[in-house]
Amino acid sequence: MKSILDFQERKNKKQKISMITCYDYTFATIVADSNIDCILVGDSLANTMHGFPTTLSATVNMMALHTAAVVRGAGAKKFVIADFPFMANRKGLTATMTAAEKIMRAGAHALKLEGGDEFTYKVVTHLVNSGVPIMGHLGLTPQSVNQLGGFKVQGRDEKAQAKIKEQALRLQDAGAFCVVLECVPSKLASEITASLDIPTIGIGAGPDTDGQVLVLQDMLGMNPGFKPKFVKTYFNGFEAIKEVFNTYHSEVEAVDFPTEKESYS
Ligand code: KIV
User: Fold this and answer.
1) Ligand 1, closest atom to CA 42?
2) Band of pLDDT at residue 227, cut at 50, 70 and 90
3) Which whole-number Å values give the CA distances from 236 to 32, 227, 243, in the listed order?
4) In this structure, are residues 139 and 183 in contact, taking their beta carbons and an 8 Å threshold?
């Protein structure tokens, strides 16, 4: 996928969208060579790349640095969306535009921002009118983990469901080209997806959204202690890579590496 027009085309043709997070050059070259449709430089880089417990530690500078590395790796092959980090779009329009400019100039093709309230809709409209495509993010919005009281499924009762449905429509009206729905009941995600003209991308939102997103490290089993219900682990990366490290260590110890093959005459 090369542009936001491809997102809309997928929705219109009822073809699913696959998105993966990515934060560095090397993995970006692999994703770029794969069939995955698009890349999210998520603020989850605070967890996966920097070891912080929440995404609140991601900053505009961190987002710009990782976005630039991913764009160098993915080249022109993939559409790259980058997250607005915690607070970066809440300090007034001028500060928001400065943050957006920094991350877009790092090479992002679009920005994602969490939440739905009057200020967010205003910001989305202004960014879109300024040429910045915006992906919304509703349901469990990890930047609000302290306000939500933990990483919990959202939209369990009717009132909360009505609120998320309205937020999705308001984001669409404000000009968002797509909305991420995180950790909401499948039925709610399905209803929102049917009510919107723009595509939805789910994570922990069931099979009926227009696309799916997973965190790269979760999918590859890099963090064996972390296994929420919505994550599917396609590879036992932690153990597989540890085994390679141990083989290397043993070969160094036994002087089986380097051999003549890896040495200069
Ligand atoms: O930062 C992130 O990885 C995200 C996805 C979970 C949607 O926002």
Assistant:
1) 1
2) confident
3) 22, 12, 11
4) yes
Could you give the 3-state DSSP secondary structure of residue 202?
strand
Q: Whose CA is nearest to atom 2 of ligand 1?
A: 42
Note the pLDDT tens digit of each residue in 48-81: 999 999 999 999 999 999 999 999 999 889 999 9
pTM greater than 0.90: yes
Tens-place pLDDT, residues 109-148: 999 999 999 999 999 999 999 999 999 999 999 999 999 9
- 21 Cβ inside 6 Å of ligand 1: yes
> For residue 13, how far is its CA from the centre of ligand 1 (angstroms)?
25
User: Rounded mean pLDDT of 169-191?
Assistant: 98
Is the preceding omega at residue 258 within 30 degrees of 0, hence cis?
A: yes
- Best residue among 20, 181, 182, 184 to mutate for probing ligand 1, ranked by most atoms within 8 Å of CB: 182
| CB burial of residue 145 (10 Å; 0-12, 13-18, 19+) | middle
> Residue 221: helix, strand or coil by DSSP?
coil
239 is an active site residue: no
CA of 98 to the centre of ligand 1 (A): 22
Residues 71, 85: Cα–Cα separation, whole Å:
18
Measured in degrees and rounded to the nearest 5, phi and psi for residue 110 equal -160, 165
Ligand 1 mutation pick, 17, 178, 215, max ligand atoms within 8 A of CB: 215
User: Which DSSP string corresponds to 18-69?
Assistant: EEEE--SHHHHHHHHTSS--EEEE-TTHHHHTT--SSGGG--HHHHHHHHHH
